[in-house]
Specification:
It is globular and about 50 Å long. The relative contact order is 0.24. The protein has a domain at about 1-50 and about 85-130: Ubiquitin-like (UB roll) (Roll). Helices cover about 30% and strands about 20% of the residues. The chain contains three helices and five strands.
Length: about 140
């Protein structure tokens, strides 16, 4: 099943990613299933990247401009050789969703923790909106 995911942050004007395509191995029945499956895919991708070694580390002008739009320009090297734990990552993502640190919309319909089930079809657009915390001093 193919879906498209967009991640946004309320504090940013530009999107982190624009319609990133994900291939799910199963049709998620609940919001927990959807978040868990996306975390598994991303952790797997992260762990595969951490073992890659590039012989030539340089950035072209286009790569610098592209990475500048996301707010971080770097070589994409993971200096921490520790692999991410899938179960810990899923637990953290689900806790963040329950705590309201991000919202999930499927085809412009907000999903909640209380929803018993969700309907995700092939080609659906899913949006994750990260809610930023205000920092400051209490008077």
């Amino acid at each position: 099943m193919k879906i498209f995911v967009t991640m946004k942050s309320l504090g940013k004007r530009k999107e982190f990613f624009k319609n990133v395509e994900y291939q799910l191995s199963m049709r998620p029945e609940t919001i927990t299933d959807l978040i868990s499956e996306l975390v598994k895919i991303n952790v797997s991708s992260y762990n595969e990247r951490s073992g890659e070694v590039s012989f030539v580390n340089y950035l072209t002008k286009e790569e610098i401009e592209l990475r500048g739009t996301t707010g971080k320009v770097g070589f994409g090297i993971n200096y921490n050789e520790q692999k991410a734990n899938v179960q810990d990552s899923i637990r953290t993502a689900l806790q963040a969703f329950q705590d309201g640190l991000f919202k999930v919309f499927i085809n412009d319909v907000e999903q909640t923790v209380e929803a018993p089930s969700i309907i995700v079809n092939d080609g659906d657009q899913i949006v994750f909106i990260k809610l930023t915390m205000l920092a400051g001093r209490m008077w």
